[in-house]
Amino acid sequence: MLKCIYFQFTTKLNTVPYLSSVNITMFLSSFAVLLIISAFIALVFNKFRFIALFTINFLLTILLIADTNFFRYYYNLITIPVFFQLNIKLVSSVNESILSQFMLKDLIYLVDLPFMLIGVLLLNKNTRKLHISRRVYRFAAFLVVGMVTFLSVFHTSNLNSFAYSNNYSAKSLGVLFSHYYNTKLLIEENLLEDDSFTQEDKNSIMALYETKKNEKDSLDSRLKGIAKDKNLIVVQMEALQQFVINLKINGKEVTPNLNRLICESLYFDNVFYQVSGGNTSDAEFVTNNSLYPAKEGAVYHLYPENTYHSLAKILKEKGYNTYSLHGFDKTFWNRDEMHMSLGFDRFFNEEDFVLDDFAGWDGQALSDSSFFRQSFDKIDTTKPFYSFYITLSSHHPFTYFEDYDFDVGEFEGTYIGNYLKAANYLDKCIGEFIAELKKRGLYDNSLLVFYGDHAAVKKIEADGLMKLLDMEYSEPEWMKLQKVPLIIHYPDQSKPEVISTIGGQIDILPTIANLMDFDAPYALGKDLLNYDENKGYVVLRDGSVVTKDFIYFNDLREVYDYDTGKLLDLNLYDDKITSYINELNVSDIIITKDAFKYGFEN
User: Fold this and answer.
1) C-beta separation of 36 from 142 below 8 A
2) DSSP states of 571-589 as a string?
């Protein structure tokens, strides 16, 4: 019980005051679930009941330790789909990031084990058997008390309203119940439900696309076709959050090159990342398809054989050569298979680069500097092309940059300080890349798109970030910090512009489509250049919604005023929130049922 409570608070899933209604519900639910588990141990095991108790305690301890470290990195519990996508390379490559979340205080999980083991060894030899009737009595007593306690608090939750938030069940009813509930949903959705593509599914998809089309037809077409027939160069920047843009430490800019680029580009300063269990791969997927990521696990692992109407496929049909580039193992996140499904002619990976310089990831990864430098010789620039770059050096946990020559003042040696150094290094590499583009005559003959993929600063490091930005923590303010920079430079652009329409990575493809003057009828996103700024919105994978007027937290079931942070009446926003979240439902149908393979017309 203590370990379960420790998990809830050390991950900041639950917060003070400790005796809040949601925390009391979680306490009672966790206690009830443990009683129910104990009931079955009492019934099934007789002479070996102490061994069974120790074994269950040990297994639950391992699960909680794994959950704690995974949650701190991904802000989500481990689920069965996560295990489906694990392979040796993936585990060995991300273990530094995940295991770096382990803290000395987490030893609380292990303190009891040696004492319990000694107890088992001493008691087990003399354990007397219990008559079946006595075991049944114990079972009944534990089960009744557990079920009554659980049912007394279960009715206060509304799980059906939080279908897109795995964290809600854990926050309100405890981590152990959440594992049961998520497993139950997985079985129902994947084994018991009909997975065929129905007319009802088609109608749902077409209805949303019709709404999107009507929206688009009512908008202006500002800058439409200004990059028509030009090259497209997209750079996904690893773990680059928006707060580093124009940030100065001791008078020095963290991202001077990106800041200069913004001064002659379109800068979208209200774009949120929308990744889920696939992290970097989710950002790639969302950007290239304008669909949402999978609810659990990664699309790249779960649905690589699907039919997609991707950016690469659209441009291939227009005669473009399409390339993706990443200086790491081709099987990582199953990119070798998935990039083929997305329509890239060639995926240049670690095997195609000379590993002559290393930076980031404990010095085990090709540096972004070398990656960019070598990439120019791999792309045929004599004909129109789309090149999609995925950087790597600034990957968590940033410890590689501890000795990097960039003064971070009082943040020296801290998580935040190391991240700022990593961001500065990435910016230096971006500067080199832009200089080479200009040298080769590609800068003004291409549409350039730079964006961040996901968060760098996890919630467990929130205090450090608040100190850096001189802010006071609150849930609404934290949500506002979950933005990534989106910078777009079109050919011969000299006049900068800041676009503050709220959006997400799902909106990048439609915005590119407007600038390059091609249709993207299967995109769920919106053109950020021509969408009404007052109506801008973003839907996150967990079902949370951000608009100019309000921020809705799906795991809290609460709505806050965007500007003031004041708690609002949820009932006034229910219908609007439901309409936004419908996009997640439609995207899930498209992905899980491979809807595009049926070739229906939009």
Assistant:
1) yes
2) GGTHHHHHHHHHHHHHHHH
Q: pLDDT value at position 210?
A: 95
Q: Coil, strand or helix: which one is 344?
A: coil
Dihedral sign (CA 212, 503, 531, 574):
positive
Token match 């609460």: residue?
558
DSSP states of 232-296:
EEEEEETT--GGGTT-EETTEESSHHHHHHHTTSEEE-SEE----TTTHHHHHHHHHH--PPPSS
Beta bridge partners of 488: 266, 449
User: 314, exposed or middle or buried, with CB in 10 Å at 0-12, 13-18, 19+?
Assistant: buried
- Between helix 49-74 and helix 175-187 the angle, nearest 10°, is 80
Give CA angle at 298 (10, 387), nearest 5°. 120
Q: Let me know: does 483 contact 242? Beta carbons within 8 Å.
A: yes
Amino acid at 499: I
Is residue 238 within 8 A of residue 391, CB to CB? The reply is yes
Quote the CA–CA distance of 247 and 558 in Å, as a whole number. Answer: 31
DSSP letter assigned to residue 486: E
pLDDT attached to residue 98? 56
Q: 94-124: buried (b, 16+ CB within 10 Å) or exposed (e) per residue?
A: beebbebbeeeebeebeebeeebeeebeeee
Question: What's the one-letter identity of residue 161?
Answer: S
End-to-end CA distance of the chain: 53
Q: Show the tokens assigned to 379.
A: 């792309």
What residues contact residue 208 under an 8 Å CB cut-off, 6+ apart? Answer: 524, 582, 583, 586
- Cα(466)–Cα(473) distance, integer angstroms: 6
For 195-218, give one letter per residue: b (16+ CB within 10 A) or e: eebeeebeebbeebbeebeeebee
277 and 296 Cβ atoms separated by less than 8 Å: yes
Closest CA to 135 of 47, 41, 48, 42: 42
* Alpha-carbon span 298 to 282, nearest angstrom: 7
Residue 233, beta-bridge partner list:
387, 448
Are 254 and 420 in contact, with CB atoms under 8 Å apart?
yes
Q: Hey, is 73 helix, strand or coil?
A: helix
Render pLDDT for 148-173 as a digit per residue (tens, 0 to 9): 999 999 988 877 665 566 788 899 99
- Active site members: 280
Please list, in sequence order, all residues whose beta carbon lies within 8 angstroms of the beta carbon of residue 439, skipping any fewer than 6 positions away: none
Q: In one letter, which amino acid is 536?
A: G
Tell me which of 255 and 121 has the higher pLDDT.
255
How many CB atoms are closer than 10 A to CB 268?
Answer: 26
* C-beta separation of 446 from 462 below 8 A: no
Which phi-psi region, left, alpha or beta, contains residue 362 (left: φ > 0; alpha: ψ -120 to 50)?
Answer: left
Close Cβ partners of 27 (under 8 Å, ≥ 6 residues apart): 5
Predicted confidence (pLDDT) per residue in 284-303, tens digit: 999 999 999 998 889 999 99
Cβ–Cβ under 8 Å, residues 174 and 26:
yes
Q: Are strands 271-272 and 346-348 parallel, antiparallel or unpaired?
A: unpaired
